[in-house]
Specification:
This protein has about 140 residues and is α+β, with helices and mostly antiparallel strands. Helices cover about 35% and strands about 40% of the residues. The strands form 2 sheets. It has a 3-stranded antiparallel beta sheet with strand order 1-2-3, with no helix packed on it. Strands 4-5-6 form a 3-stranded mixed beta sheet, covered by helices on one side. The N and C termini lie far apart (about 40 Å).
Length: about 140
């Protein structure tokens, strides 16, 4: 896996993944940015959310659950001092479908957290306290 990041100007950068996809990142105005892109630390949260949601959906589909939608709301706290690392992150899954079994949803979230989500496991090893919660919506 590889990526590259190129500085545009001020606090603006373009990141390109090894698979050829690009994203603009920028900082806030008080740090020289123009607010034209996502913040780099927000990218970490989005990556974490994407990694874990991928797992949850995959596990539920393999369990033959009729999943219609899944989103994860990621809330994070950062240290007050530099470096302003993440100290706590909560991933709250909102899973909807027809006749979803709670034990399957619970197990999918647990398996993602404990076994499959590389991003979550990596951040935990770096000292971030990560918690998970979920709600099921019937559709």
């Amino acid at each position: 896996m590889q990526a590259s990041v190129k500085w545009i100007d001020g606090a603006s950068f373009v990141g390109e993944s090894g698979s050829g996809h690009s994203v603009v990142m920028d900082g806030p105005a008080d740090h020289g940015g123009r607010n034209i892109g996502i913040r780099p630390m927000e990218m970490i949260l989005i990556g974490l959310g994407g990694c874990s949601t991928f797992d949850v959906i995959s596990i539920l589909q393999k369990s033959r659950q009729d999943v219609h939608d899944c989103r994860v709301e990621v809330q994070a706290e950062r240290a007050d001092a530099v470096p302003a690392v993440f100290t706590k992150i909560n991933l709250h899954f909102v899973v909807s479908g027809a006749g979803l079994k709670e034990n399957h949803v619970k197990r999918a979230v647990e398996l993602s957290a404990e076994k499959y989500c590389s991003a979550s496991i990596m951040l935990e090893k770096a000292g971030v306290e990560i918690t998970h919660s979920y709600v099921i919506e019937e559709k």
